[in-house]
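Q: Hi! Curious about what Outer membrane protein looks like structurally. Here's the sequence.
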Amino acid sequence: MHHGQLITYNIMKKLIMKTKYIWLLAVLLGFTACNSDDDSTSTEEVILPPLTAGEVDFSNYVAVGASFTAGFSDGALFIATQNNSFPNILSMQFAMLGDGSFSQPLMNDNIGGLLFNGVQMPDGSFGPRLYFNGSGPAVLPATPTTEAYNVLGGTFNNVGVPGAKSFHLGIEGYGFANPYFGRMASNPMASMIGDAVSQNPTFFTLSEIGGNDVLSYATSGGTGVDQTGNYNPATYGNNDITDPVVFGVSFNASVDALIANGAKGVVTNVPYIASLPHFTTVPYNPIPLNAGTAAQLNAGYAQYNGGLTLALSYNLIDADEFAYRSIEFEASENNSMVLIDEDLTDLSALGIPSYRQSTSLDLFVLPLASLIPQGYGTQIPLADKWALTPEEQQNITIATDAYNATIEAVANANGLALVDFKGILIQASTVGVTSGDFILTTDLVTGGLVSLDGIHLTSRGYAVMANEMMSAIDATYGSNFVASGNLVDCGDYPTNYSPTLQ
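A: Let's find out. The predicted structure is below.
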């Protein structure tokens, strides 16, 4: 018997023993009867309105974008996540309105990765997907079976191409530079936007354009160049940040081409990618040291610290920079790492390298995690490619804000639905995003939103993205995916895949 039931029973027993309060017992019994009715398992059926399309014709849906559009996850593109890509999820909801089919350039397997004339790339790029091995992400021990040079031909509703930057969308012959597009292009000289427009879409999504314009800069630790002010993308390196004007011209041209025949659509803004777990999982102070090891390391950096003292005496650096650059380890579980920072005062003429120890303002790329036990960050100062300094993070933020201003202006000017992907990711990285019975965060492995590569979404994350798009479509075009109960249940989509899925 529950505590509350026991109290009620004792009260009723006393009342029964005192007949002068028999009328109160009747009242209590009346309340009990009412409570029993309230606790009944019978529920009134909720009748939802039928699904309606509002102002949109969903009969020919075409998705244009990069890796998120393609369904890239766990470091690779493979069939399972292609089938769970947000465009494919959307297409199944659109199909409930009696609209057309949705074709995708499927890979050959669930291994992921590409072969080039039967050979894997020696640098590990285009390799198999990752899986969780019980302690962390690991590369699937299998060989891809998808040949990059086997052209599928035709056109596909999903024109999502991993690696595509904003100015790549209109390049004819882009398939020669990007094998993901090469295997799906309608002809060797096709462009992404050309293949999309040739299908005369009635509805489109143009998603995550701008992400790759800063992503490779970030994943390379800022080794590229911020090309702001350079309007010629033909001169850009792969790891460079795209000039916002170049982005704006490219984005406007893509939207103009897609809406030329009256198509309606959804666009998304660009998240702050530095908040993804690829950059937030490795802490700035992960080095445990005992007193003896700390002393040995300090002895190794004694000459460097002495050089800083000399530079200070010559007024080549001030006291603040001297303190900022000095290296000192201690007996602690949380020592900072030594890194090379090109934004420090150049003292190379004195033979003094640009070393300092990491702070909480620095970010580190995920692959560094496996190298720290090998002496990276202690005996081996971290090269530029392993860290994003505050200055490099600022370059990314400024460019992202400029891209997003353009995206919002173009969406408003053309009456397009806009999904605030930036806001969603900020929420996920702080308090979490609620979807159905789940609270999704950006924590690696356990968060549920971001896949094992720390950048791309899980299938559950793509389901959340599809729901956000349907909500935006409702708000802009008068459809009722939300009100009719036709958002997808993100719990129906997995967060990771077993290595046996091949």
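A: A fun detail: Residues 202 and 290 are 65 Å apart (CA to CA).
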